[in-house]
Specification:
globular; 10 helices; 16% strand; two-stranded antiparallel sheet; binds nicotinamide-adenine-dinucleotide; alpha/beta; eight-stranded mixed beta sheet
Protein backbone atom coordinates (compact mmCIF):
# COMPACT_ATOMS: atom_id res chain seq x y z
CA UNK A 1 0.00 0.00 0.00
CA UNK A 2 1.38 3.43 -0.89
CA UNK A 3 -0.04 5.00 2.31
CA UNK A 4 1.84 8.29 2.72
CA UNK A 5 5.17 7.01 1.37
CA UNK A 6 6.95 9.64 -0.68
CA UNK A 7 4.19 12.19 -0.09
CA UNK A 8 5.16 15.75 0.81
CA UNK A 9 3.07 16.84 3.77
CA UNK A 10 2.98 20.11 5.69
CA UNK A 11 2.08 19.90 9.36
CA UNK A 12 1.47 23.32 10.90
CA UNK A 13 2.17 23.82 14.58
CA UNK A 14 4.33 20.68 14.50
CA UNK A 15 6.92 21.90 17.01
CA UNK A 16 5.14 20.33 19.97
CA UNK A 17 2.06 18.50 21.21
CA UNK A 18 -0.11 16.74 18.63
CA UNK A 19 1.57 18.30 15.60
CA UNK A 20 4.92 16.87 16.64
CA UNK A 21 3.36 13.40 16.88
CA UNK A 22 1.77 13.79 13.46
CA UNK A 23 5.11 14.84 11.96
CA UNK A 24 7.05 11.99 13.63
CA UNK A 25 4.49 9.40 12.57
CA UNK A 26 4.27 10.65 8.97
CA UNK A 27 8.07 10.69 8.64
CA UNK A 28 8.24 7.21 10.16
CA UNK A 29 5.82 6.12 7.42
CA UNK A 30 8.22 7.60 4.84
CA UNK A 31 6.47 10.87 4.08
CA UNK A 32 8.57 14.03 3.55
CA UNK A 33 7.46 16.48 6.18
CA UNK A 34 7.51 20.26 6.48
CA UNK A 35 7.58 20.91 10.22
CA UNK A 36 6.02 24.34 10.59
CA UNK A 37 5.94 26.10 13.95
CA UNK A 38 5.94 29.74 14.95
CA UNK A 39 7.52 28.71 18.23
CA UNK A 40 5.47 30.92 20.53
CA UNK A 41 3.56 30.43 23.78
CA UNK A 42 0.14 28.83 24.21
CA UNK A 43 -1.58 32.22 24.04
CA UNK A 44 0.06 33.05 20.71
CA UNK A 45 2.68 35.45 22.13
CA UNK A 46 6.35 35.23 21.15
CA UNK A 47 8.10 33.22 18.46
CA UNK A 48 11.26 31.20 17.91
CA UNK A 49 12.90 28.57 15.73
CA UNK A 50 13.89 25.89 18.26
CA UNK A 51 10.52 24.07 18.44
CA UNK A 52 10.44 23.28 14.71
CA UNK A 53 14.21 22.66 14.60
CA UNK A 54 14.06 20.13 17.44
CA UNK A 55 11.34 18.07 15.73
CA UNK A 56 13.22 18.15 12.42
CA UNK A 57 16.37 16.96 14.24
CA UNK A 58 14.37 14.16 15.86
CA UNK A 59 12.98 13.03 12.50
CA UNK A 60 16.38 13.16 10.80
CA UNK A 61 18.03 11.27 13.67
CA UNK A 62 15.50 8.49 13.11
CA UNK A 63 16.37 8.40 9.38
CA UNK A 64 13.35 10.38 8.16
CA UNK A 65 13.05 13.42 5.90
CA UNK A 66 11.93 16.79 7.22
CA UNK A 67 12.52 20.50 6.83
CA UNK A 68 11.60 23.29 9.25
CA UNK A 69 9.49 26.37 8.60
CA UNK A 70 8.88 29.15 11.14
CA UNK A 71 6.17 31.26 9.46
CA UNK A 72 2.85 32.10 11.05
CA UNK A 73 -0.20 30.45 9.52
CA UNK A 74 -2.21 33.56 10.42
CA UNK A 75 -1.31 35.60 7.32
CA UNK A 76 -1.64 34.98 3.59
CA UNK A 77 2.12 35.55 3.18
CA UNK A 78 2.81 33.02 5.94
CA UNK A 79 0.58 30.43 4.28
CA UNK A 80 2.34 30.95 0.94
CA UNK A 81 5.81 30.72 2.53
CA UNK A 82 4.91 27.47 4.30
CA UNK A 83 3.80 25.81 1.06
CA UNK A 84 6.80 27.33 -0.76
CA UNK A 85 9.09 25.59 1.74
CA UNK A 86 7.62 22.25 0.61
CA UNK A 87 8.07 23.15 -3.05
CA UNK A 88 11.62 24.45 -2.57
CA UNK A 89 12.88 21.45 -0.57
CA UNK A 90 10.84 18.55 -1.87
CA UNK A 91 9.54 19.81 -5.24
CA UNK A 92 5.85 19.20 -4.54
CA UNK A 93 3.02 19.32 -2.01
CA UNK A 94 0.50 16.51 -1.50
CA UNK A 95 -1.02 17.07 1.92
CA UNK A 96 -1.66 19.67 4.59
CA UNK A 97 -2.47 19.21 8.27
CA UNK A 98 -3.85 22.48 9.64
CA UNK A 99 -2.95 21.86 13.26
CA UNK A 100 -1.45 25.15 14.55
CA UNK A 101 -3.45 26.61 17.37
CA UNK A 102 -3.59 28.95 20.36
CA UNK A 103 -5.98 29.67 23.20
CA UNK A 104 -7.38 32.90 24.67
CA UNK A 105 -10.16 31.52 26.85
CA UNK A 106 -12.57 34.02 28.41
CA UNK A 107 -16.27 34.15 29.28
CA UNK A 108 -18.15 35.71 26.36
CA UNK A 109 -19.19 38.74 28.40
CA UNK A 110 -15.51 39.62 28.96
CA UNK A 111 -14.11 38.61 25.58
CA UNK A 112 -12.25 41.43 23.82
CA UNK A 113 -12.07 42.01 20.07
CA UNK A 114 -8.38 41.17 20.25
CA UNK A 115 -9.01 37.81 21.94
CA UNK A 116 -11.67 36.98 19.37
CA UNK A 117 -9.60 38.06 16.37
CA UNK A 118 -6.30 36.43 17.31
CA UNK A 119 -7.91 33.02 17.90
CA UNK A 120 -9.96 33.19 14.69
CA UNK A 121 -6.80 34.41 12.95
CA UNK A 122 -4.68 31.39 13.84
CA UNK A 123 -7.27 28.60 13.63
CA UNK A 124 -9.80 29.59 10.98
CA UNK A 125 -7.84 32.07 8.87
CA UNK A 126 -4.71 29.94 9.32
CA UNK A 127 -6.55 26.91 7.94
CA UNK A 128 -7.69 29.07 5.03
CA UNK A 129 -4.29 30.63 4.23
CA UNK A 130 -2.28 27.41 4.21
CA UNK A 131 -4.93 25.43 2.32
CA UNK A 132 -5.41 28.26 -0.18
CA UNK A 133 -1.70 28.27 -1.00
CA UNK A 134 -1.68 24.48 -1.53
CA UNK A 135 -4.98 24.31 -3.45
CA UNK A 136 -3.75 25.28 -6.96
CA UNK A 137 -1.02 22.63 -6.74
CA UNK A 138 -3.54 20.03 -5.60
CA UNK A 139 -5.86 20.88 -8.50
CA UNK A 140 -3.09 20.85 -11.07
CA UNK A 141 -1.77 17.44 -10.03
CA UNK A 142 -5.20 15.91 -9.38
CA UNK A 143 -4.28 14.95 -5.83
CA UNK A 144 -4.51 16.54 -2.42
CA UNK A 145 -5.24 15.63 1.17
CA UNK A 146 -6.34 18.17 3.79
CA UNK A 147 -6.86 17.55 7.49
CA UNK A 148 -8.20 20.29 9.75
CA UNK A 149 -7.75 20.16 13.50
CA UNK A 150 -11.21 20.85 14.86
CA UNK A 151 -12.40 20.35 18.43
CA UNK A 152 -15.30 19.06 20.48
CA UNK A 153 -15.47 22.69 21.69
CA UNK A 154 -16.44 23.62 18.13
CA UNK A 155 -18.83 20.70 17.70
CA UNK A 156 -20.54 20.89 21.10
CA UNK A 157 -19.37 24.17 22.71
CA UNK A 158 -17.33 24.75 25.87
CA UNK A 159 -17.53 27.39 28.58
CA UNK A 160 -15.03 30.21 27.97
CA UNK A 161 -14.25 29.14 24.41
CA UNK A 162 -16.63 31.13 22.20
CA UNK A 163 -13.70 32.37 20.06
CA UNK A 164 -12.02 28.98 19.84
CA UNK A 165 -15.27 27.05 19.36
CA UNK A 166 -16.43 29.38 16.58
CA UNK A 167 -13.07 29.00 14.81
CA UNK A 168 -13.10 25.23 15.14
CA UNK A 169 -16.71 24.95 13.92
CA UNK A 170 -15.75 27.27 11.04
CA UNK A 171 -13.13 24.75 9.91
CA UNK A 172 -15.87 22.11 9.65
CA UNK A 173 -17.84 24.51 7.48
CA UNK A 174 -14.73 24.96 5.37
CA UNK A 175 -14.14 21.23 4.78
CA UNK A 176 -17.80 20.73 3.89
CA UNK A 177 -17.35 22.97 0.87
CA UNK A 178 -13.76 21.94 0.08
CA UNK A 179 -14.99 18.34 -0.06
CA UNK A 180 -17.54 19.32 -2.71
CA UNK A 181 -15.23 21.57 -4.73
CA UNK A 182 -12.22 19.24 -4.45
CA UNK A 183 -13.90 15.94 -5.29
CA UNK A 184 -13.34 15.97 -9.05
CA UNK A 185 -9.65 16.80 -8.52
CA UNK A 186 -9.15 13.97 -6.02
CA UNK A 187 -8.72 16.52 -3.23
CA UNK A 188 -10.14 15.22 0.04
CA UNK A 189 -10.75 17.43 3.09
CA UNK A 190 -11.56 16.00 6.53
CA UNK A 191 -11.43 17.15 10.14
CA UNK A 192 -10.18 15.53 13.33
CA UNK A 193 -11.22 16.64 16.80
CA UNK A 194 -8.36 15.27 18.92
CA UNK A 195 -8.31 14.64 22.63
CA UNK A 196 -4.77 14.56 24.01
CA UNK A 197 -2.52 15.60 26.86
CA UNK A 198 -0.52 18.60 25.57
CA UNK A 199 0.38 22.05 26.85
CA UNK A 200 -2.99 23.19 25.51
CA UNK A 201 -4.97 20.86 27.78
CA UNK A 202 -2.53 20.61 30.73
CA UNK A 203 -4.61 22.84 33.04
CA UNK A 204 -8.00 22.30 31.38
CA UNK A 205 -8.68 18.59 31.91
CA UNK A 206 -8.10 16.58 35.10
CA UNK A 207 -4.71 14.81 35.38
CA UNK A 208 -6.31 11.32 35.60
CA UNK A 209 -8.09 11.90 32.28
CA UNK A 210 -4.98 13.36 30.61
CA UNK A 211 -2.97 10.30 31.64
CA UNK A 212 -5.26 8.26 29.37
CA UNK A 213 -4.82 10.58 26.38
CA UNK A 214 -1.29 10.28 24.98
CA UNK A 215 -1.06 12.43 21.81
CA UNK A 216 0.60 9.68 19.74
CA UNK A 217 -2.72 7.81 19.70
CA UNK A 218 -4.24 10.44 17.41
CA UNK A 219 -1.45 10.36 14.82
CA UNK A 220 -2.50 7.21 12.89
CA UNK A 221 -6.00 8.65 12.39
CA UNK A 222 -4.59 11.84 10.88
CA UNK A 223 -2.10 9.69 8.92
CA UNK A 224 -4.90 7.57 7.42
CA UNK A 225 -6.76 10.65 6.19
CA UNK A 226 -3.57 11.66 4.31
CA UNK A 227 -3.20 8.35 2.45
CA UNK A 228 -3.96 7.65 -1.18
CA UNK A 229 -6.33 4.87 -0.07
CA UNK A 230 -8.56 7.19 1.94
CA UNK A 231 -11.76 8.00 0.04
CA UNK A 232 -13.64 9.97 2.67
CA UNK A 233 -14.15 13.68 2.33
CA UNK A 234 -16.11 16.08 4.51
CA UNK A 235 -15.88 13.60 7.39
CA UNK A 236 -15.40 14.69 11.00
CA UNK A 237 -13.91 12.29 13.53
CA UNK A 238 -13.25 12.59 17.24
CA UNK A 239 -10.07 10.74 18.23
CA UNK A 240 -8.23 10.19 21.49
CA UNK A 241 -7.47 7.72 24.21
CA UNK A 242 -7.65 4.84 21.75
CA UNK A 243 -11.19 5.74 20.63
CA UNK A 244 -12.13 7.01 17.18
CA UNK A 245 -15.69 8.08 16.34
CA UNK A 246 -17.39 9.77 13.43
CA UNK A 247 -19.56 12.79 14.17
CA UNK A 248 -22.25 13.80 11.70
CA UNK A 249 -25.19 16.19 11.44
CA UNK A 250 -28.58 14.49 11.42
CA UNK A 251 -31.89 16.11 10.47
CA UNK A 252 -35.16 15.30 12.19
CA UNK A 253 -38.24 14.11 10.29
CA UNK A 254 -39.59 17.55 11.21
CA UNK A 255 -42.90 19.11 10.26
CA UNK A 256 -44.36 20.32 6.97
CA UNK A 257 -46.56 23.41 6.81
CA UNK A 258 -48.62 23.75 3.63
CA UNK A 259 -49.15 27.41 4.33
CA UNK A 260 -47.03 29.96 6.21
CA UNK A 261 -47.72 29.15 9.87
CA UNK A 262 -48.28 31.59 12.69
CA UNK A 263 -45.82 31.67 15.60
CA UNK A 264 -48.42 29.79 17.64
CA UNK A 265 -48.69 27.09 14.97
CA UNK A 266 -44.89 26.66 14.99
CA UNK A 267 -44.96 26.49 18.79
CA UNK A 268 -47.69 23.85 18.69
CA UNK A 269 -45.53 21.57 16.54
CA UNK A 270 -42.15 22.38 18.13
CA UNK A 271 -41.85 18.97 19.81
CA UNK A 272 -42.42 17.30 16.43
CA UNK A 273 -39.86 19.59 14.74
CA UNK A 274 -37.15 18.83 17.30
CA UNK A 275 -37.87 15.13 17.86
CA UNK A 276 -34.86 13.22 16.50
CA UNK A 277 -36.68 9.87 16.25
CA UNK A 278 -36.15 8.54 12.73
CA UNK A 279 -33.70 11.33 11.86
CA UNK A 280 -31.39 10.96 8.88
CA UNK A 281 -28.03 12.43 7.86
CA UNK A 282 -28.64 16.01 6.73
CA UNK A 283 -28.00 17.02 3.12
CA UNK A 284 -27.89 20.42 1.51
CA UNK A 285 -31.19 20.77 -0.41
CA UNK A 286 -29.79 23.55 -2.60
CA UNK A 287 -26.39 21.93 -3.24
N1 LIG B 1 -4.94 18.69 22.87
C1 LIG B 1 -6.23 18.49 22.70
O1 LIG B 1 -6.89 17.71 23.43
C2 LIG B 1 -6.95 19.20 21.61
C3 LIG B 1 -8.35 19.13 21.60
C4 LIG B 1 -9.04 19.73 20.55
C5 LIG B 1 -8.34 20.37 19.56
N2 LIG B 1 -6.98 20.45 19.60
C6 LIG B 1 -6.31 21.16 18.50
O2 LIG B 1 -5.19 20.41 18.06
C7 LIG B 1 -4.18 21.32 17.60
C8 LIG B 1 -2.87 21.03 18.32
O3 LIG B 1 -3.02 21.33 19.68
P1 LIG B 1 -2.05 20.82 20.85
O4 LIG B 1 -2.92 20.32 21.90
O5 LIG B 1 -0.99 19.96 20.27
O6 LIG B 1 -1.45 22.22 21.38
P2 LIG B 1 0.03 22.82 21.32
O7 LIG B 1 -0.05 24.17 21.94
O8 LIG B 1 1.00 21.85 21.91
O9 LIG B 1 0.34 22.92 19.77
C9 LIG B 1 -0.01 23.99 18.96
C10 LIG B 1 1.21 24.39 18.16
O10 LIG B 1 0.86 25.41 17.23
C11 LIG B 1 1.92 26.35 17.18
N3 LIG B 1 1.40 27.63 16.70
C12 LIG B 1 0.62 28.50 17.39
N4 LIG B 1 0.34 29.57 16.62
C13 LIG B 1 0.95 29.37 15.43
C14 LIG B 1 1.01 30.11 14.22
N5 LIG B 1 0.39 31.29 14.10
N6 LIG B 1 1.70 29.60 13.18
C15 LIG B 1 2.34 28.40 13.29
N7 LIG B 1 2.34 27.67 14.43
C16 LIG B 1 1.63 28.14 15.47
C17 LIG B 1 2.43 26.40 18.61
O11 LIG B 1 3.76 26.92 18.67
C18 LIG B 1 2.33 24.95 19.06
O12 LIG B 1 3.52 24.22 18.85
C19 LIG B 1 -4.72 22.72 17.85
O13 LIG B 1 -5.33 23.22 16.68
C20 LIG B 1 -5.77 22.50 18.91
O14 LIG B 1 -6.74 23.51 18.91
C21 LIG B 1 -6.28 19.90 20.61
Amino acid sequence: MPGVEGRVIVVTGAGGGLGREYALSLAHNRAKVVVNDLGGARDGSGSGTSMADNVVAEIRAAGGEAVPNYDSVATADGGKAIIQTALDHFGSIHGVVNNAGILRDKGFHKMTDEEWNIVLGVHLHGGFHVTKAAWPHFREQGYGRIVMATSTSGIYGNFGQSNYGAAKAGLIGLINTLAIEGRKYNILANAVAPMAATRMTSDIAPAELLAKLPPEQVAPVVGYLLTEECEDSGTVVVAGGGQVHRVQYFQSQGATFDETPTIDEVAARWKEITDMTGSEPGVNPVG
